[in-house]
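Hello Y.,

Per our agreement to keep a running log of every chain we model this quarter, I'm adding this entry. I've kept the format consistent with earlier entries: sequence first, then predicted structure.
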Amino acid sequence: MGLGTRYGLEIRAAAAGDAPGLSQLFDACGLTLSARDAADRLDILRREQAAALIAVEWGPPSGLVVMNWYRTLLSGAPVAQITVLLVAPDDRRRGIGRLLLKAAAQAARVAGCASLEALVDVDRPDSQGFCLATGFTLTGQRFARPLRKAAQP
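Predicted structure for the entry above:
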């Protein structure tokens, strides 16, 4: 089921059959995700409080947004968090990222969320600029640590 179309571009939920194209999209963006891992992870996301939406014209997906939502003690409504937002390099500057963001916000509202966060890589100023240009504000920093020690060589 599509969430919307614009000039031949469709925004819809990602399915396991999209996994090879998503693998190509990750590769074009300098990231690695095998088609098998993509299919497995899409299946898991479908069963959780999450959404994976893709932008498709023809061929592999032009873009992807993945978000999860969670509850906190600080808010009566869930918070939606975008964990992946990718647009293929050849398809950038065409409004695809904004359309994916709009579809993600709509899905978050339907899920009852009151706010939307975006996780961005601090080494990607283009991502930070996109977030600022689309109404996000910088609210703090995120710290992370592994739960298992790395294997020693």
